[in-house]
């Protein structure tokens, strides 16, 4: 089936409507409207400082941790507003997991890294946890490499393995959405390609949003691409949001074309 | 372990689509000769109409190739395969046009009495279709050795064309009233001869995928 037809039949998982974000009096995001369909990979691309990570963090309210932050507009997960006062942020962050740029395994064993989240969410029987740990590590194709090292420190793993561990850790709490903020930037090319293939596998089950400054990666891996840029007052705006194949072969907006072809950066 | 399995799967699917397009134009060539032999105007009309579908398929594959280049940054052998696909579908589309051209000649002939039983022209068509199937198989299998040999079979088609031309020329000289009908048959034979040239071009692209070099397999006499 044609990819674009498939996407139009998938339901909307996350959506923003005229979202703006302020750090105090500084407007970091202006009027962003987009919808993200279930089980797709969306990449957010654009020059440094244009608000890509800020937009990503809208979806799991990580921006809340910054003093003085204010969000306007509507952000919905499965049709329910996530900025509603009744929304439990802990539950939100279980449903919408995050993987960061620098691998950040906890200073614990491989096993305890994965088991940490499930333990916090009520799984306390070791037999259950063992199943979850193995399942999560298998999902990221790391099980065979670490099954004999589960009681060793996660910090002893290679960078690529550590990042896979972080993805497994996010998967262990059975999220619905995975946010990946420049998750391959610190990795070698082979590890990067492995994680890109993993993303395509995971997209059968999860909705994935990635921020990347690597346009080639965005082109390779995502179904939809959102191009952002900074306006003169430094507010980030969404310029164009379309299927990736279209953005990279025939973008509608000249600003998108200029950026992806390197005519401005 | 294949790291870029998603991309390589799309590349294989695209090559399969080239095979399917090859099948479409092979059938069109054979049916165009059947229509000519049987004076089947309806069949000829259908071939002309179906050529639009071939043209659409060509552009669909081209669009997919462009998207693969734009999104997957292919290099080395992968890039040469996509470049070859872009060239091969152009050649196939022209072969489809020749089949439609032959069908239009059938329509033009209408119910005029046949000049002679067709023997060599159907032989040319069979040779061409065989070459086309084998050249596309060589493309899928990255078999440059087979491609060189198939490309050289263009000589066989050229020889049959010479026979057809000389025979029809003699007929026209003997009986000038046959000139119109004979000329139309020469056009048919010429279209088929051009198909063989296109197939040689396909074979050259197969060699290119493996070696990275464009080499002429056999210079046509025409």
Q: Can you tell me the residue ranges of chain A where pLDDT is under 50 for at least 5 consecutive residues?
A: none
What is the helix tally of chain B? Answer: 7
Q: What is the overall number of helices of chain A?
A: 11
Shape of chain A: globular
Strand arrangement within the widest β-sheet of chain A reads 6-7-8-3-9-10
The tally of strands of chain A reads 10
| Oligomeric description of these chains | heterodimer
List low-pLDDT spans of chain B.
none
Instruction: Report the C-alpha radius of gyration of chain A, rounded.
Output: 19 Å
Distance between the termini of chain A: 36 Å
Radius of gyration of chain B using CA atoms only: 19 Å
Query: Pairing-aware structural class of the strands and helices of chain A?
Result: alpha/beta
Helix content of chain B: over 70%
Query: Biggest interface: chains and residue counts?
Result: A-B, 12 and 11 residues
Estimate the global geometry of chain B from the Cα principal axes. Answer: elongated
Largest sheet of chain A: 6 strands, mixed
The average pLDDT of chain A is 93
The average pLDDT score of chain B comes to 94
DSSP strand count of chain B: 0
Task: Give the CA-CA distance, first to last residue of chain B.
Answer: 49 Å
């Amino acid at each position: 089936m044609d990819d674009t037809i498939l996407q139009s039949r998938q339901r909307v998982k996350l959506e923003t409507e005229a979202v703006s974000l302020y750090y105090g009096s500084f407007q970091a995001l202006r009027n962003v409207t987009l919808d993200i369909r279930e089980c797709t990979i969306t990449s957010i691309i654009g020059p440094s400082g244009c608000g890509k990570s800020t937009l990503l963090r809208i979806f799991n309210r990580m921006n809340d941790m910054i003093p003085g932050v204010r969000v306007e507009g509507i952000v919905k997960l499965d049709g329910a507003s996530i900025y509603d006062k009744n929304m439990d942020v802990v539950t939100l962050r279980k449903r919408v997991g995050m993987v960061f740029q620098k691998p950040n395994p906890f200073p614990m064993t491989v096993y305890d890294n994965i088991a940490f989240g499930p333990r916090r969410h009520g799984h306390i029987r070791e037999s259950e946890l063992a199943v979850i740990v193995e399942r999560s590590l298998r999902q990221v194709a790391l099980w065979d490499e670490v099954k004999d090292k589960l009681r060793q420190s996660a910090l002893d793993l290679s960078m690529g393995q550590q990042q896979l561990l972080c993805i497994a850790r996010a998967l262990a709490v059975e999220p619905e959405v995975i946010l990946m903020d420049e998750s391959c930037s610190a990795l070698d090319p082979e590890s990067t390609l492995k994680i890109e293939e993993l993303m395509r596998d995971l997209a059968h089950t999860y909705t994935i949003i990635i921020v990347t400054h690597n346009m080639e990666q965005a082109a390779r891996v995502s179904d939809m691409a959102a191009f952002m840029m900074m306006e003169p007052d430094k507010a980030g705006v969404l310029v164009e949001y379309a299927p990736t194949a279209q953005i990279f072969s025939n973008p509608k907006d000249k600003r998108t074309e200029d950026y992806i072809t390197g005519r401005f950066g | 372990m294949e790291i870029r399995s998603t991309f390589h799967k799309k590349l294989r699917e695209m090559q399969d689509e080239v095979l399917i397009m090859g099948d479409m134009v092979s059938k069109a060539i054979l049916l165009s000769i059947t229509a000519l032999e049987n004076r089947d105007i309806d069949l000829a009309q259908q071939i002309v109409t179906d050529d639009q579908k071939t043209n659409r398929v060509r552009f669909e594959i081209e669009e997919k190739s462009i998207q693969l280049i734009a999104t997957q940054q292919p290099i080395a052998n992968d890039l040469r395969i996509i470049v070859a696909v872009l060239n091969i579908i152009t050649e196939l589309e022209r072969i489809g046009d020749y089949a439609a051209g032959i069908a239009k000649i059938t329509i033009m002939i209408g119910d005029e009495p046949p000049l002679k039983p067709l023997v060599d022209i159907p032989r040319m068509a069979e040779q061409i279709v065989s070459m086309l199937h084998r050249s596309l198989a060589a493309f899928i299998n990255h078999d440059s050795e087979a491609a060189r040999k198939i490309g050289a079979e263009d000589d066989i088609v050229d020889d049959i064309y010479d026979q057809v031309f000389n025979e029809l020329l003699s007929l026209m000289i003997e009986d000038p009233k046959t000139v119109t009908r004979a000329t139309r048959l020469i056009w048919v034979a010429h279209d088929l001869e051009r198909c063989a040239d296109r197939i040689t071009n396909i074979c050259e692209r197969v060699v290119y995928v493996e070696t990275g070099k464009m080499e002429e397999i056999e210079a046509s006499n025409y």
